[in-house]
Amino acid sequence: MVALSISKEELSELPTVVYPGEIIVINTAEEAKAALEVISGYSVIGFDTETKPSFKKGYTNKVALIQIATDDACYLFRINKFGLIDEIIDLFQNTNVLKVGLSLRDDYMVMHKSREFGHENFIDLQNFVRSYGISDSSLQKIYGIVFNGRISKGQRLSNWEAETLSPSQQMYAAIDAWACLKIYQSLVSEEFDMEKSPYLKEVPSQE
Question: Cβ(165)–Cβ(25) under 8 Å?
Answer without folding.
Answer: yes
